[in-house]
Amino acid sequence: MESIPPNLRKLWKEWEFRGMILLSLTTQIVFVILGNRRKYIAGAWIRIIVWTAYLLADAVAIMAAGILSNNLGEIYRKDSFVPEYELLAFWAPMMLLHLGGTDAITAYSLEDNELWKRHSFGLVSQAMTTMYIFVLAWTRSLFSLLFVVMLYVGLVKYGERERVWVLYWASDNKFRDSIPDIPSSESKVVQECRLKQLEGYHHEFLEMVKRLFADLVMGFQDGYASRSIFENHGASSAFRIIEIELGLIYDLRYTKAKIVYSSWGIAGRFIGIFLTLIVLLMVSLHERILVANIATTPRLTVP
């Protein structure tokens, strides 16, 4: 006896990939809305929601790519590849974009930054799966060319200039190595503070505060300078300065701030957005042709 009725199996076969796509999109929306809010909100509900979405995001994207490759493999073996499945294969590079994550969160905890090697391996395996789907779906059509463009955008977002790179530089060793040593004479922070004072700016504490979060010893000059600065401010101003500095530390360890505020990151964003808009425009222009081909082509039912 069959444990699952045929109707339910057929319904699951039709909606398993769509369900994974919707779930993956939902996790990305959660990251955009709540990913950076947990910096200001200490409630348990937001931690649970973000933690659940963080655990689901990678697994769902990988499962969706696996389901897609399996379905396309069955279609390819039957030699009945139709335009409908060519459009379906276009979701493969989109999964790389989802794996790249949003700007609001790259790591849920500091320990996640140490897993950059695991994410590097995940990037390689997901890229190989995407290339397998690309080979199956290659028809020398416009969608095949657009597939290549989105594959490039997805690899860049997940790899070199995005998540893996950010996790690598936010790991404890690299974060500690990025902090300069204490000079033997006067602290560089003190020198910069004096220059900023002459220019009419407020003092900057980021390099000083970073030492506290890297388990490094703060220099005597830095401690004296920070104490003298806080003595000249009221309680509200002092707490406001601490809030700003803690927010900057949070952005460096948990988000893509190091990428977003760099020249290479800005250039990469503009290129990625431009290419994505071009792909969206081309898909929109050829949508009617594809729909017409789907309507006139017999639909293949995969058992």
Mean pLDDT: 78
Give the overall form: elongated
Q: What's the total number of strands?
A: 0
Strand count, sense and barrel status of the largest sheet are: none
Oligomer: single chain
Give the helix/strand class.
Answer: mainly alpha
As a percent range, the share of helical residues equals over 70%
- Number of separate domains: 2
Summed up, the helix count is 16
Low-pLDDT windows of residues = 197-202
Terminal Cα separation, in Å? 18 Å
Helices and strands, in N-to-C order? Answer: HHHHHHHHHHHHHHHH
Q: Which range does the strand content fall in?
A: under 5%
Indicate the radius of gyration in whole angstroms. Answer: 25 Å
Describe the structure.
- The protein has helices spanning 6-34, 44-77, 83-89, 91-100, 110-113, 116-137, 142-158, 163-170, 172-177, 188-199, 206-212, 220-231, 235-254, 257-260, 263-285, 287-296.
- With 303 residues, the chain is mostly helical.
- The protein has two domains: 6-162 and 271-296; 174-253, no CATH class.
- Helix 1 packs across helix 2 (44-77), helix 4 runs parallel beside helix 7 and helix 6 runs antiparallel to helix 7.
